[in-house]
Amino acid sequence: MPKTITVVAAAVLLVVFLVGGLFAAPIWWDALAQLLDLSPGAASTGETDEHDHGSPTSVKLTPQGRANLGLVVEPIAPSDYWRTTQMPGMVIDRPGESDRSVPAPVAGVVMRILARQGDLVRPGSPLFVLKLASESLQTSQTELLRQTRDLEINKAEQARYSTPELKALNPGRLIELDYQRRRLEAGIQAQRQDLAARGLTPAQIEQVAEGRFLTEITVHAPTPSNSADDVIYDVEELRIRLGDQVQAGQALCILADHQRLYIEGHALAQEVGLLQEVARQKRLVRIEFLTGPGISPPHASLELPIRHIANKLDTESHSLRFYLELPNLHQDSDAESPGNASHRHWRYRPGQQVRLHVPVEEFKQKFVLPAGAVVREGSEAYVFRASGDRFERRPVHVLYQDRQVAVLEPGDSEITAGNYVARNSAAALNRAMKAQSESSEHGHHHHDHDH
Asked: Between 18 and 115, where is the model more confident?
């Protein structure tokens, strides 16, 4: 305002003050002071009190405030990142491999149970003792002993008829004995194979051949076909009790090998092409477990390739199943069962729900932050850059964001590589910044009108 006009206006207000009387004096004096841009401080020093009421851009935090927010501040650097699409999944047993039944080799009565549910057993470990109640097994043992004795007699006869005198008297006898020997050896071999198929060990078969018949048989944990040295079974289920009469082939227990499991994922029909491309390029799928792990500490992030994709759609859900092989981890318990068989606690268990993050699009050399590092206001997005005890709000260009990460364009943001930024609690920082600004404005307003 030009100085002449200001002086004239002041003179007019002074006249009105004199005419209006003392009751109106405070009101018109304030108006006069504002017109002349005066305050008690300004009148004495000649300075003006200007307040910036624009949008706040930073917030100051005490060490206690940072601790209360659990603030994580780290330098930012560009990196590669894959955008993913999410698909549901579940941990399952390997079909036909994880679980196996242990059948009774012969009919019998359960006399002893050597492994209980939850015990850890190795291939060849004894599981049950059965008292034989099989007539066919008794017959096989008797037949093996008889043919073994007949063979011994045959050999003795052959040795006797090998002398020159007897050989000259009956030359056809040796031919007959030799034919009989071959027939007996074939019968003995068949009986031995029959007993071996019923679960008898070579030592037990030799015992029968010597005339010591078996009245009990021990059932052992089977040896896997791949003969892996580290195979260990968990006794998952017992299907018999002491004193039960069992038949040949009846399941005695279920053994589980959970060292390797599958993750079964479900994709929509329109995602088949994406899955095939991911499998072809051997991209890794990130696994997010929705149910807690079996042991502590919690499992880290896990990435696995697709093992195979089913060749048909599920008729009920119209989804396509695909599978990933999951190596399992375990922790053996310190306590031991009465049979000195330790127990094992697996980290991953069939039935655990998972969320599969299948890679779709790659971002190269972008800023990748946790989603909590970005706060949005309308169309704008911000992160907080650390500067001493202050955090400056800086606008950024978000290329992609989900509930876990935010991908920023380095060349289109007010942050650069090496800047220290808050990696979490951006929304809380934004609220604190506004609260400090409002508190400051309220203080200034109160100061201006407190006379």
From this structure: 115
Q: How confident is the model at residue 37 (pLDDT cuts 50, 70, 90)?
A: very low
Taking residues 116-120, report their average pLDDT.
Answer: 88
Average pLDDT over residues 337-341: 44
pLDDT band at 297 (very low <50, low <70, confident <90, very high): very low
Q: Which of 151, 178, 152 is nearest to 167 (CA)?
A: 178
Residues in a beta bridge with 324 = 263
Using CA atoms, how far residue 319 sits from 171, 243, 280, in Å, is: 81, 48, 20
Q: How many C-beta atoms surround the C-beta of residue 145 within 10 A?
A: 18
Type of residue found at 414: E
Give the DSSP letter of residue 218: E
Please list, in sequence order, all residues whose beta carbon lies within 8 angstroms of the beta carbon of residue 222, skipping any fewer than 6 positions away. 100, 102, 123, 255
Residue 56: its pLDDT value, please?
Answer: 77
What is the Cα–Cα distance from 329 to 295, expressed in whole angstroms? 9
pLDDT band at 364 (very low <50, low <70, confident <90, very high): very high
Q: Which domains does the chain have, with CATH numbers?
A: 3-50 (no CATH), 59-77+366-447 (2.40.420.20), 86-95+257-361 (2.40.30.170)
118: left (phi over 0), alpha (psi -120 to 50) or beta: left
DSSP secondary structure of 140-159? HHHHHHHHHHHHHHHHHHHH
Q: What is the structure's pLDDT at 442?
A: 61
Cβ–Cβ under 8 Å, residues 89 and 288: no
Residues 140, 145, 147, 148, Cα dihedral to 10°: 140
Beta strand pairing status for 284-289 and 251-256?
A: unpaired
